[in-house]
Design goal:
CATH class of the largest domain in chain A: Alpha Beta
Strand order of the largest sheet of chain A: 8-10-7-11-9-12-13
CATH topology of the largest domain in chain A: Phosphoribosyl-aminoimidazole Synthetase, Chain A, domain 2
Number of strands of chain A: 13
CATH architecture of the largest domain in chain A: Alpha-Beta Complex
Distance between the termini of chain A: 50 Å
Structural class of chain A: alpha+beta
Strand content of chain A: 25-35%
Shape of chain A: globular
CATH superfamily of the largest domain in chain A: PurM-like C-terminal domain
Number of helices of chain A: 9
Oligomer: homodimer
Radius of gyration of chain A: 20 Å
Number of domains of chain A: 2
Chain lengths: 310, 310
């Protein structure tokens, strides 16, 4: 009796290793599932974020994983560990933020549990779906493709450093907002998938260098970044690094990084106009392996330095 | 574009309020999703459990929720917060325990994340499925039904107290094992559902009194427990309560509590024989509301006292 379905076919289409795992829902629909946990003092500090923004971000980082595959988000479960020091209005603000993000993308809370915890701990699992042939994985990039990114990579890392240094929202407001309250690119992801634009896609959660590495590895190609094309964040004076460093190695941007055939550029232009999104071509895909950064005549391998949480 | 499916029909069949939430997978299949989090010093203590058993339990408590609806478990995601004090062999033992439970029930780990955490924190989301018409909810109990339970309620609570009191495994081994390493009743749940035996079902995670209350409330009926029929755990001398108290108010047994028509008793007997399960009829369903306990001529309302974690 047990396992009668699995004797015929595994229910899992794709396991660990992409933004979401995939499972078969029906003949023409594929389910997506992703999970992300935020732990106080590992992923956020309560002195830097309001609870409403934290609620939004908790769901939005999961939504970003569904966006990265061109999926439609459906519903989510929540496990919440609450320290007794949290005021009831703070808990309410957290739920209001969650609900705000859920309403914006039409997803529903279907279950979960709440318990006491010495630190605030938020674990969300999000389920989405996609019509089978429109899903975009990390592995579809082909030599000759262009590499494109939405938004400005590194902005969130600049925002984090601004918070650490106690720099005012007035001076670094855009970067701080990018860090505390990122917007998942659900509509952009779905357009890029359904119009057949993106050949490979990932959300930029670990920094451009790492995320390019994943596309290169999964697709079995080399990714070449053109230094002068990469949009750079504005970095306040006295910060630890130059703008390019934040762009290459800063994480938690939750923008979309994708590859496309040059022939699909006109469709991409239409999508950008329609959604009012800023998309920049920052490189290209070649035969080979690894990630390189190119400036005029020089080309050097780019080693990921990853993104360090505080 | 966004929400195009949901304009026609919500993907969610049943939200918060049963052992699992339900969603539509295809015409004849329903998906089940459930999530449970275990936090160190809230749900377990590392000095009482080995990491292998903890890994098994983390998945098994989720499997129990699928069992309680008569579903087939498919795959799971894992979010793990690891304290730096944990040795690598302890982490390996935890994963081995997880894998042991997963293999026993044919479920696959499909994704998740791991991060640093001041305390060990394990959050699992499990997805299962069921053929649509065989699912058993909490709300199907009817006046005239019998009330049945697998195993011995309260055993896990006795085991927890034994651990708290430092009583040896030799003296309270069965109870300690019930607490540290419960077995989800997947096969039993599926037989009870597919053979049309159970009219309402729940897993006993919060204590018999609470779990009866949920069936009574969801079904709009009264549940009457017959005191002399309730199987009781063996309680070592000097423990805080008498055996009936543990049976009524102890939690975390992860057995199945269900209602059935008396006409289905012969089928239940076949299932018990086939699976070698101990099932006891402990009461009945009547018109009305609330939970009562009956002994000879007296009948008193039973107020849930819930299960206190340490």
């Amino acid at each position: 009796m047990r396992g009668s379905h699995r004797d015929v076919k595994s229910p899992v289409k794709l396991g660990i290793g992409d933004d979401c795992a995939l499972f078969y829902m029906s003949e023409d629909r594929v389910g997506l599932i992703t999970t992300d946990t935020l732990i106080e003092d590992t992923h956020f500090r309560l002195k830097w974020t309001d609870l409403f923004s934290l609620g939004r971000k908790s769901l939005n980082v999961n939504l970003s994983d569904v966006a990265a595959m061109g999926g439609l988000p459906l519903f989510y479960t929540l496990s919440l560990g609450l320290p007794s020091s949290l005021l009831s209005e703070e808990v309410e603000a957290f739920y209001a933020g969650l609900d705000d993000a859920a309403t914006a993308f039409g997803v529903q809370l279907v279950g979960g549990d709440t318990c006491n915890s010495p630190l605030l701990m938020i674990s969300i699992t999000l389920v989405g779906e996609s019509v089978k042939d429109t899903l975009v994985l990390r592995k579809g990039a082909k030599p000759g493709d262009l590499l494109a990114i939405s938004g400005v990579p590194g902005l969130s890392a600049v925002g984090l450093e601004a918070l650490e240094r106690g720099i005012s929202h007035k001076e670094a407001g855009e970067a701080i907002a990018a860090h505390l309250d990122p917007s998942p690119k659900i509509e952009l992801g779905r357009f890029l998938a359904e119009r057949g634009v993106a050949t490979a896609m990932i959300d930029t959660s670990d920094g451009l260098a790492w995320d390019c590495q994943k596309i290169a590895q999964e697709s079995g190609v080399a990714v070449v970044l053109e230094r002068k094309s990469i949009p750079l964040p504005i970095v306040p004076q006295d910060f630890a690094h130059d703008p390019l460093f934040y762009a290459l190695h800063g994480g938690e941007d939750y923008q979309l990084l994708f590859t496309l055939s040059p022939l699909r550029m006109p469709v991409l232009a239409q999508i950008c106009n329609r959604l009012n999104e800023r998309i920049t071509i920052i490189g290209r895909v070649e035969e080979g392996e690894g990630v390189f950064i190119e400036e005029e005549d020089s080309r050097v391998p780019l080693e990921p330095e990853g993104f360090k949480h505080f």
